[in-house]
Amino acid sequence: MQAKTNPYVGLWVTADGYIRHELLPNGRYDEARGSRQSAYQGSYTLIGDHIDYQDDTGFTADGDFRDGILYHAGMVLYQQER
Questions:
Q1: What letter does residue 18 receive in the DSSP assignment?
Q2: pLDDT digits (tens, 9 = 90+) for 19-53
Q3: InterPro entries, per this entry (predicted)?
Q4: What's the sign of the alpha-carbon dihedral 20, 30, 81, 63?
Q5: Are 30 and 22 in contact (CB under 8 A)?
Q6: Between 20 and 30 A from 66 (CA), which of 14, 57, 73, 79?
Q7: Distance of alpha carbon 45 from alpha carbon 64, whole angstroms
Q8: What is the spatial distance between Cα 63 and Cα 44, in angstroms, rounded to a whole number?
Q9: Coil, strand, or helix at residue 44?
């Protein structure tokens, strides 16, 4: 379970807005792609600035946060301001 003070909780989007990862404070994520809401859902674990994803079908992926940017599976995502 992720702490509510996790600085990475929130919405992360690609520059074109097509991919949107919402990292929830309970260790879950919800990914939208284009007009498809909740295209992928699952859990995530943080170790420092590294994130491991496991979607609900068992697929896994990972990424790293560097200088306020999420690098994940060849994508670059930026945290959207609240």
A1: -
A2: 999 999 999 999 999 999 999 999 999 999 999 99
A3: Atu4866-like_sf (IPR038646), Uncharacterised_Atu4866 (IPR020955)
A4: negative
A5: yes
A6: 57
A7: 12
A8: 11
A9: strand
The two tokens of residue 41 are: 């859902």
**Cα–Cα distance between 67 and 2 in angstroms, integer?**
21
41/63 Cα distance (integer angstroms): 16
pTM attached to this predicted model = 0.88
Candidates 3.55.40.20, 2.40.170.20, 2.40.128.290, 3.40.50.300; CATH matching 10-79: 2.40.128.290
Q: Which pair of tokens denotes residue 80?
A: 């959207």
